Amino acid sequence: MAPEPRTAVPVVRPGRWFVPAPPAGPLAFAFPYAGVGASSYRPWPARIGEVAVVAVQPPGRENRTREPAHRTHRAFAHDLADALLPYLDRDYYFVGHCGAVPYALETIFELERRGCPLPRRLVASSWGAPHRGLYGYLNFVDLSTADLHAETRLLFARAGVPVREDFVDLLTQVLRHDLETQRDYSYPAGARVPVPVTLLGWTGDDVVPADQVRPGWTECAQVEYEELEGAHLAFLSCPANLQRSLEHWLR
After folding, report:
1. pLDDT tens column, 67-112
2. CATH code at 80?
3. How many domains does the chain have?
4. Is 174 strand, coil or helix?
5. Could you tell me which of 12, 187, 22 has the C-alpha nearest to residue 93?
6. What Pfam families does the record tag this protein with (predicted)?
């Protein structure tokens, strides 16, 4: 089989990938939501129990906007795995919401291919079984006609955060790239996720309804499921019910 095509990305210090720099002890690497970067985890506590929260910052976003973004999940996973290598000597976890989940999955598979220590658990919020296709907004949006500026403004309005118009322009470019990249994603045929998965559904989720999250996951992973009260973007603010859930699963 031909090797996976990769976008040329400049070699950067591993620290560019993580906000903040990973401290000693167990870590939860948090993958960013579609269209945004590591700052989307700013409302989260610095620690969940004894586990430090470290947001992943991919190229092409926020302080890395001058670096070309990856065009495939496989290329993303390859470079993130390189950056993760110094931190695989302790317990660690992956956390992601909605479109972040495929990036976390592909990174797990990349680490498995290398024979590296794997995360103790993946916490996957608002995402259906990956081998069954895309979900929510990604599944029906027509990129040729969609008003992604309006979608970006709506994202911030739902989060209750004011945003400048020039920043909307920048984030719209990131969102379009994310959607285009997600469209080309294909879960590896027959693959089984080699770590336990905790699925989170949200009672008020109008993007990926809770009843779409659980079906099919047992076909490709060992899963636990928990349903939390809240809307689709509640995850980004890490409300008290989510913190309690994470304290249970990140052990």
Report:
1. 998 999 999 999 999 999 999 999 999 999 998 999 999 999 999 9
2. 3.40.50.1820
3. 1
4. helix
5. 22
6. Thioesterase
